[in-house]
């Protein structure tokens, strides 16, 4: 699996996921919207943690720098 999420992208994804999780746990967001946003938060935090986004891979997008693109993760 080749990393395709850069440092700034990882930070934004992780912070956005944590903010959504905070509002979910706080009870500010509930119901169907809460379930959908919980899934989104899990995906954001997960893709930020492993530096790989399957959607980016399908679209051929990478926010990694040029030097980091040549490295692969086993």
Oligomer: single chain
Q: Roughly how many Å apart are the termini?
A: 6 Å
Number of helices, counting only DSSP H or I runs of 4 residues or more:
4
Summed over residues and divided by their number, the pLDDT gives a mean of 90
Overall spatial form: elongated
Taking the sheet with the most strands, its summary is: none
Order of SSEs? HHHH
Count of folded domains: 1
Count of DSSP strands: 0
Q: Uncertain regions: pLDDT < 50 for 5+ in a row? A: none
Helix content: 55-70%
Bin the strand percentage: under 5%
Could you please describe the fold and organization of this structure?
The chain has 74 residues and is mostly helical. It has one domain (7-69). It is built from four helices and no strands. It has helices spanning 7-26, 31-50, 54-59, 66-69. α1 (7-26) packs antiparallel against α2.
Summarize the structure.
The protein is built from four helices and no strands.
Features:
74 residues; mainly alpha
SSE layout and pairings?
Elements: H1 7-26, H2 31-50, H3 54-59, H4 66-69
Helix pairs in contact: 1-2
């Amino acid at each position: 699996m080749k990393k395709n999420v850069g440092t700034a992208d990882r930070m934004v994804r992780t912070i956005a996921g944590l903010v959504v999780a905070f509002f979910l746990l706080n009870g500010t967001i509930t119901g169907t919207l809460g379930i959908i946003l919980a899934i989104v938060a899990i995906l954001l935090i997960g893709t930020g943690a492993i530096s790989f986004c399957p959607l980016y891979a399908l679209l051929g997008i990478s926010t990694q720098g040029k030097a980091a693109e040549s490295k692969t993760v086993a």
